[in-house]
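Q: What would this chain look like folded?
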Amino acid sequence: MSDEAAALPLDSWHRARGGRMVPFAGYAMPVQYEGIMAEHKWTRASAGLFDVSHMGQLIIAGPDAEKGLESQLPADLTLLKDGRLRYSLLLNAEGGIIDDLMVTRRGDHFYMVVNGATKAGDIEWLEAHLPRGVVLDHMKEQALLALQGPKAAEALARLAPGVEQLGFMTGGAFEIGGAKAWISRSGYTGEDGFEISILARDAETVATLLADQDEVKPIGLGARDSLRLEAGLCLYGQDIDESTSPIEAGLSWSIPARRRQDCDFIGANRIARELARGVARRRVGLTPQGRVPVRHGSAIRDGRRLVLVVNGASSIDERRKEAQKILDWGFKQFRPVEVYNANDRVARARVWGGESRWVDLVTPQEIRLLLSPVEQQKVTVDLHYMGPLLAPVKAGEKAGVIQFNLEGRTVAEFPIETSAEIAAVNSMWLKAWDSLLYMTFGG
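A: My prediction, written as C-alpha cells:
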C-alpha cells in the first residue's frame, strides 16, 4: 500500500470487515472482501454496498448556473426537472472527454458527481470556464455510498421509508438512522439501485445499518468494475479519455437534439462534424464464444487490421445468458473475429457495439453490429415496456415487446412474457459484454 494513499471516512470500517485495501484514485479502497466473483454474483442476485466516497461531489450555484453549466456540458438542463439527474460529459475544446459525470437539479442549484481520479482537474477546469457569479463548492465533508442490486429497494426502504417510490434517475432528501441523506435511484452496475450522499461523520453509522440488512453485503472495487463492464458502461481512464469523443465512445445519446442543433458548448465543432460524417473508430463489445476470456491488452485480428482490447474480464452473471438468447433470436448473422491472448490461445468472439443508454419506460436502443457482408450495417432494437420499468411481472402477463428493425422495417418481434425475461432485459439493457475496445472501420 502506497504511503500516499489517503484514508476515506470508512477506512477502518472496511478493514474490520476483512476488506483487502489497495490504492485507487489516490485513496486506500477495498478491492474485495470474500472474492470478486462471489461479490459480483451477490450484487446481481441481492444487494451490494459500495463505498464510492472517493468521487467528487460538487454544488454549482448562482443565477447563471444553468447557462454556465450548459456552456460546459452537452446536456439540456432546461428540461431537467427538480430532483432529476442526467448522465453527461465534460468536454475539452477538441471535443475530447475530460470526464463523465452525473448532474442533478436540486432547487436553486445543481449537484454534480464526478470521478475521483479526475475531480481535481474537473474543478480546476470548471472554475476557469464557468462565468463570474457562478459558485462551485467541493463538498469535501460528504461521503458517498451506492446500494446496488435487485433487492436494494427492499433493504433501503426499511431504513428510509418512501425511497422505494423514487423513479429511475430521480433523487430526494431522506433520513437514515437520524442522518440526513440525499438519495438518488441510480448507479453504475446495470442493476436497480441507489446512491446515498451523507456527511462523512455519519458514514459508519449508515454503512453499518445498511450492511446489517439480510440482503446486503459490502462489495469491493473488483466486482464494481466487472459489474459495470458486463453492462457495457464506460470507465474513465480506460474506455474513455481526452482523446476520445462521445461519438467514438457510443455516448451520442447523452447529447440531446437541442444541443446538437445549437452547437453552443465547448467541443461542439468536433461533435457536429462526427455526427454528420461518422467516425473512423467506434467502441464495440465482445462476447467470447468459448471459455477463453478476452482481457485488457488482448489483440483482435479483424481481416488485416489488428486492434487491442482496452478493457476486459470474464462475464460472471448467469442472467446475461437470458439476455443473449433474446439477442441471438433476433440476430443470426454475426461476423466472427479472432482473439489473440497473451498465451497465443485463439478464441472466437462476437463483435457488437452500441450505446450505453439510460433506460426509460419506452427505450429505443441502437446496437451496431458488424454484419456480413456490409460493415457498419445498422440494426435498431426498440424495447417497449408495458408497465413500470422495475415492477415485477405476474405470470402470464405480457411485460413488453422487443422489435428488431432493419433499414426502417420491422423484421421480427420478440414478446417478453415472463418476469425472468424482463429481469434479464432490465438488468443488462440488452447488453452482455465481456470486453470493450475501439474498432477501426474502413480502409
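Residues 302-308, 317-399, 416-443 have pLDDT under 50 and may be disordered.
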